[in-house]
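Quick one, probably user error.
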């Protein structure tokens, strides 16, 4: 199975959807309310999975959320095996995704630049 095959793309989408549901239902107080699964990459052999996580909040909230997810990885994997019918249930590696914050920061910088140009034109 190639990495970008249609089957692998469907598996990635299904695993992302189920991971989002499972993380939303976790009762760990360390995991922030605004935790989002932005992307999932399941290896072609279905042994490992990279889950990119975005957390809205400060650095402490991000580190707490990552610690909570890593401690709940076994439970999350078991629930994923129960909900998604795959030959192998992948081992999940959580990775912090900073792209949403970076995009918001760049958007704010562009808006500020437009405002300063508008003031200069007056």
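Nope, works fine. Designed sequence:
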């Amino acid at each position: 199975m190639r990495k970008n095959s249609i089957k692998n793309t469907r598996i990635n989408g299904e695993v992302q959807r189920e991971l989002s549901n499972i993380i939303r239902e976790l009762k760990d107080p360390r995991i922030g309310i605004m935790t989002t699964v932005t992307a999932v990459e399941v290896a072609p052999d279905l042994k490992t999975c990279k889950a990119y996580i975005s957390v809205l909040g400060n650095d402490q909230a991000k580190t707490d959320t990552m610690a909570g997810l890593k401690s709940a990885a076994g439970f999350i994997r078991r629930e994923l095996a129960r909900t998604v019918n795959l030959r192998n249930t992948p081992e999940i590696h959580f990775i912090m995704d900073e792209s949403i914050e970076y995009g918001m920061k760049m958007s704010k910088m562009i808006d500020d630049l437009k405002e300063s140009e508008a003031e200069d034109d007056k």
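The beta strands are 35-42, 48-55, 91-96.
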